[in-house]
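Look at one such:
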Amino acid sequence: MDLDDLYQEVILDHKRNPRNFGPMPDANRNVDGFNPLCGDHIHLHMKLAGDVIEDVRFEGEGCAISTASASLMTEALKGKRVEEAERMFEAVHALLTEEDVDPDLGQLGKLAIFSGVRQFPSRVKCASLAWHTLCAAIQDDGDEVITTE
Protein backbone atom coordinates (compact mmCIF):
# COMPACT_ATOMS: atom_id res chain seq x y z
CA MET A 1 0.00 0.00 0.00
CA ASP A 2 1.50 3.37 -0.97
CA LEU A 3 1.15 6.68 0.89
CA ASP A 4 -1.71 7.89 -1.34
CA ASP A 5 -3.74 4.76 -0.60
CA LEU A 6 -2.99 5.03 3.10
CA TYR A 7 -3.95 8.73 3.04
CA GLN A 8 -7.32 7.96 1.46
CA GLU A 9 -7.98 5.05 3.80
CA VAL A 10 -7.19 7.01 6.98
CA ILE A 11 -9.07 10.13 5.85
CA LEU A 12 -12.18 8.16 4.95
CA ASP A 13 -12.06 6.12 8.16
CA HIS A 14 -11.88 9.24 10.33
CA LYS A 15 -14.59 10.99 8.29
CA ARG A 16 -16.96 8.03 8.65
CA ASN A 17 -16.04 7.31 12.28
CA PRO A 18 -14.61 10.46 13.85
CA ARG A 19 -12.91 9.87 17.16
CA ASN A 20 -13.67 12.09 20.15
CA PHE A 21 -16.72 13.56 18.43
CA GLY A 22 -19.44 15.01 20.59
CA PRO A 23 -20.10 17.38 23.46
CA MET A 24 -18.01 17.73 26.60
CA PRO A 25 -20.08 19.32 29.39
CA ASP A 26 -17.10 19.65 31.75
CA ALA A 27 -14.81 21.39 29.23
CA ASN A 28 -13.06 24.48 30.54
CA ARG A 29 -12.10 25.74 27.07
CA ASN A 30 -14.55 26.02 24.14
CA VAL A 31 -13.73 27.66 20.81
CA ASP A 32 -15.44 27.77 17.42
CA GLY A 33 -13.54 27.58 14.15
CA PHE A 34 -14.82 28.29 10.66
CA ASN A 35 -13.38 27.85 7.17
CA PRO A 36 -15.57 30.00 4.87
CA LEU A 37 -13.89 28.66 1.73
CA CYS A 38 -15.09 25.11 2.30
CA GLY A 39 -17.86 25.62 4.87
CA ASP A 40 -16.09 23.62 7.58
CA HIS A 41 -17.24 24.48 11.09
CA ILE A 42 -15.78 23.04 14.29
CA HIS A 43 -16.55 23.55 17.95
CA LEU A 44 -13.55 22.41 20.00
CA HIS A 45 -14.01 21.39 23.64
CA MET A 46 -10.95 20.98 25.82
CA LYS A 47 -10.41 20.15 29.46
CA LEU A 48 -7.11 21.48 30.78
CA ALA A 49 -5.78 20.46 34.17
CA GLY A 50 -2.86 22.77 34.81
CA ASP A 51 -0.80 22.43 31.64
CA VAL A 52 -2.07 18.97 30.67
CA ILE A 53 -4.78 18.36 28.09
CA GLU A 54 -6.90 15.84 29.98
CA ASP A 55 -9.53 15.56 27.30
CA VAL A 56 -10.38 17.12 23.95
CA ARG A 57 -13.43 16.62 21.77
CA PHE A 58 -15.03 18.33 18.81
CA GLU A 59 -18.38 18.84 17.15
CA GLY A 60 -19.33 20.35 13.83
CA GLU A 61 -19.53 19.63 10.15
CA GLY A 62 -16.86 19.68 7.52
CA CYS A 63 -15.27 18.03 4.56
CA ALA A 64 -13.45 14.73 4.94
CA ILE A 65 -10.04 16.39 5.40
CA SER A 66 -11.29 18.80 8.08
CA THR A 67 -13.12 16.10 10.04
CA ALA A 68 -10.23 13.64 9.77
CA SER A 69 -7.75 16.29 10.88
CA ALA A 70 -9.83 17.15 13.96
CA SER A 71 -10.32 13.47 14.77
CA LEU A 72 -6.62 12.60 14.44
CA MET A 73 -5.64 15.74 16.35
CA THR A 74 -7.84 14.87 19.32
CA GLU A 75 -6.39 11.36 19.44
CA ALA A 76 -2.85 12.73 19.42
CA LEU A 77 -3.39 15.39 22.09
CA LYS A 78 -5.00 13.59 25.01
CA GLY A 79 -2.62 13.53 27.95
CA LYS A 80 -0.11 15.90 26.31
CA ARG A 81 1.29 18.99 27.97
CA VAL A 82 0.41 22.32 26.40
CA GLU A 83 3.99 22.87 25.22
CA GLU A 84 3.93 19.46 23.49
CA ALA A 85 0.65 20.40 21.79
CA GLU A 86 2.16 23.70 20.64
CA ARG A 87 5.20 21.88 19.20
CA MET A 88 2.86 19.45 17.48
CA PHE A 89 0.93 22.41 15.99
CA GLU A 90 4.18 23.87 14.64
CA ALA A 91 5.15 20.51 13.11
CA VAL A 92 1.73 20.03 11.49
CA HIS A 93 1.68 23.62 10.24
CA ALA A 94 5.13 23.18 8.66
CA LEU A 95 4.03 19.88 7.15
CA LEU A 96 1.01 21.57 5.56
CA THR A 97 2.66 24.77 4.35
CA GLU A 98 6.40 24.37 3.81
CA GLU A 99 8.13 22.67 0.91
CA ASP A 100 10.58 19.82 1.52
CA VAL A 101 9.49 19.09 5.08
CA ASP A 102 10.03 15.49 6.07
CA PRO A 103 7.43 14.50 8.64
CA ASP A 104 8.81 13.61 12.06
CA LEU A 105 6.97 10.34 12.47
CA GLY A 106 8.01 10.11 16.11
CA GLN A 107 6.20 13.35 16.85
CA LEU A 108 3.40 13.20 14.28
CA GLY A 109 2.56 9.53 13.87
CA LYS A 110 -0.58 9.16 11.73
CA LEU A 111 -0.75 12.94 11.25
CA ALA A 112 2.11 12.59 8.77
CA ILE A 113 -0.41 11.45 6.16
CA PHE A 114 -1.37 15.10 5.73
CA SER A 115 1.97 15.82 4.04
CA GLY A 116 0.32 15.60 0.62
CA VAL A 117 -2.22 18.32 1.43
CA ARG A 118 0.25 21.15 0.74
CA GLN A 119 0.04 20.26 -2.96
CA PHE A 120 -3.56 21.50 -2.83
CA PRO A 121 -3.45 24.99 -1.29
CA SER A 122 -7.22 25.30 -0.98
CA ARG A 123 -7.27 22.17 1.22
CA VAL A 124 -4.58 23.39 3.63
CA LYS A 125 -7.19 25.46 5.47
CA CYS A 126 -9.37 22.37 5.80
CA ALA A 127 -6.56 20.39 7.42
CA SER A 128 -5.37 23.25 9.63
CA LEU A 129 -8.72 24.52 10.95
CA ALA A 130 -8.81 22.24 14.00
CA TRP A 131 -5.19 23.09 14.80
CA HIS A 132 -5.75 26.85 14.70
CA THR A 133 -8.84 26.36 16.85
CA LEU A 134 -6.71 24.36 19.29
CA CYS A 135 -4.25 27.27 19.58
CA ALA A 136 -7.10 29.64 20.42
CA ALA A 137 -8.33 27.19 23.07
CA ILE A 138 -4.86 26.91 24.61
CA GLN A 139 -4.57 30.70 24.71
CA ASP A 140 -8.11 30.83 26.16
CA ASP A 141 -9.13 33.12 23.32
CA GLY A 142 -12.91 32.76 23.11
CA ASP A 143 -13.12 34.47 19.73
CA GLU A 144 -14.10 32.42 16.71
CA VAL A 145 -11.19 31.29 14.55
CA ILE A 146 -11.69 31.97 10.85
CA THR A 147 -9.21 30.55 8.34
CA THR A 148 -9.19 33.15 5.58
CA GLU A 149 -5.49 33.82 5.05
In short: The two ends are 35 Å apart (CA to CA). The first strand starts at residue 29 and ends at 35.
